């Protein structure tokens, strides 16, 4: 971690051709719960300029709930989901209308893309979203993405848009992600408290071990916890991330050393592995003996029936399931080849025995290595602290 030092020019950001920009509610709306037209125009000016310079921009915009408060006579963000959804329904329409006219000043079309966490988890929906976004970009349109708040449920919901923006950066294979908030950088603690100092560079979870990630501001959701999580998800796919405020958007996009730079990992896993690791949840669990954990985690082998000692939950073949060690620690996730009910009779058996006794269709792995992703829960925990 580098704190308040002169940071270096960021060539990866300056050279990125396809960029996801995410702006939080606090950067787009007024304290009265209405759209902040001036700030939206200022941000659109920056994005239009970037586009004119040859970049492709995907814009993830929060603010639907916040922008719906004023028109509905609400003075603060409601705590119940139904009223939040009603506010989002009103606010989203107003926001997109505003973006449409603001981008029209530059002759640029926008397209609304509303996604749910559930869409991210279903492979077919995920692929459809990918195709739509690709086509919008090919047509020169700026996609305006938000969570589909009106159908999201409490159980399965992003709530904040930080994680959604990181997943969108996977979907479109972005080369950079810019997170714009009401704070100009990540600090060692909540900048509303005295003594907090700006962090200019984050190279890995170890750099965040002593950072106090506080809650959100007046209208935002998730605070710094979800932004750091988003940076980790994007960085894991080799996407560099800058966290700063809307006023510094142009500088951030140009690679200037503003805000906080989250350095990406060098290696980009396949889109399928990224989807499995970050967009799905396990429908059940498979418990592994230590030898199988080693084979899957360290030697990156397929999971064979011989190493499975337990099965939990109700899933069908093709579902994502969590793979856990004997202490219940999640070590991997994969697409399982069998229904939950079939697995007890396979557990502990060699594939050769299964083929001989039960037929050749039982010779297959429980999870093939191509459908298996190792989850580094140690760094998860450190990143979320
Ligand atoms: N360590 C920290 N560094 C920077 N900001 C922090 C930190 N901890 C908490 N915050 C707070 O997080 C807020 C931004 O989160 P949030 O309100 O969810 O923003 P947005 O609406 O942009 O998504 C800031 O206003 C800041 O007060
Ligand atoms: N989808 C929601 C996002 C809510 C929210 O607060 O997000 P953020 O401001 O990014 O923390 C909306 O548009 O209101």
Automatic annotation (TrEMBL):
Q: Which residues bind substrate?
A: 62, 149, 161
Which SMART domains has this protein been placed in?
Answer: PUA
> Sorted alphabetically, which CDD domains does this protein's record hold?
AAK_G5K_ProB, PUA_G5K
Gene Ontology cellular-component terms listed: cytosol
Q: What is its main location?
A: cytoplasm
- Name the job this protein performs: Catalyzes the transfer of a phosphate group to glutamate to form L-glutamate 5-phosphate.
The UniProt entry, under HAMAP family, shows: ProB (MF_00456)
User: Any idea what this protein is called?
Assistant: Glutamate 5-kinase
Q: Which organism is it from?
A: Thermomonospora cellulosilytica
């Amino acid at each position: 971690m580098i704190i308040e030092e002169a940071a270096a020019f960021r060539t990866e950001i300056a050279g990125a051709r396809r960029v996801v920009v995410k702006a939080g509610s606090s950067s787009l709306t007024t304290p009265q719960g209405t759209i902040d037209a001036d700030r939206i125009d200022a941000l659109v000016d920056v994005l239009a300029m970037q586009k004119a310079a040859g970049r492709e921009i995907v814009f993830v915009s929060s603010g639907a709930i916040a922008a719906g408060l004023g028109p509905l006579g609400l003075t603060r963000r409601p705590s119940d989901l139904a009223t939040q959804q009603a506010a989002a329904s009103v606010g989203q329409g107003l926001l997109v209308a505003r973006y449409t006219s603001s981008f029209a000043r530059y002759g640029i079309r926008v397209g609304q893309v509303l996604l749910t966490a559930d869409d991210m988890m279903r492979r077919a929906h995920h692929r459809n979203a990918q195709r739509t976004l690709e086509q919008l970009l090919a047509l020169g349109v700026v996609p305006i993405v938000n969570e589909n708040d009106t159908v999201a449920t409490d159980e399965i919901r992003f709530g904040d848009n930080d994680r959604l923006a990181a997943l969108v950066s996977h979907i479109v294979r972005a080369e950079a992600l810019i997170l714009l908030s009401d704070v100009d950088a990540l600090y060692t603690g909540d900048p509303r408290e005295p003594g907090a100092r700006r962090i200019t560079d984050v190279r890995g979870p170890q750099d965040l071990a002593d950072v106090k990630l506080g809650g959100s501001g007046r209208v935002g959701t998730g605070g710094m916890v979800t932004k750091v999580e988003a940076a980790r998800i994007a960085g894991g796919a080799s996407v560099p991330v800058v966290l700063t405020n809307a006023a510094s958007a142009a500088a951030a996009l140009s690679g200037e050393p503003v805000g906080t730079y989250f350095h990406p990992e060098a290696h980009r896993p396949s889109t399928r592995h990224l989807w499995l690791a970050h967009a799905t949840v396990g429908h059940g669990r498979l418990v592994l003996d230590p030898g199988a954990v080693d084979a899957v985690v360290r030697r990156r082998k397929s999971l064979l029936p011989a190493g499975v000692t337990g099965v939990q939950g109700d899933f069908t073949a093709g579902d994502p399931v969590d793979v856990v060690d004997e202490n219940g620690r999640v070590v991997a996730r994969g697409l399982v080849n069998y229904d939950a009910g079939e697995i007890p009779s396979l557990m502990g058996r060699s594939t050769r025995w299964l083929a001989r006794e039960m037929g050749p269709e039982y010779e297959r792995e429980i999870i093939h290595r191509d459908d298996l992703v190792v989850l580094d829960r140690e760094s998860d925990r450190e990143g979320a602290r």
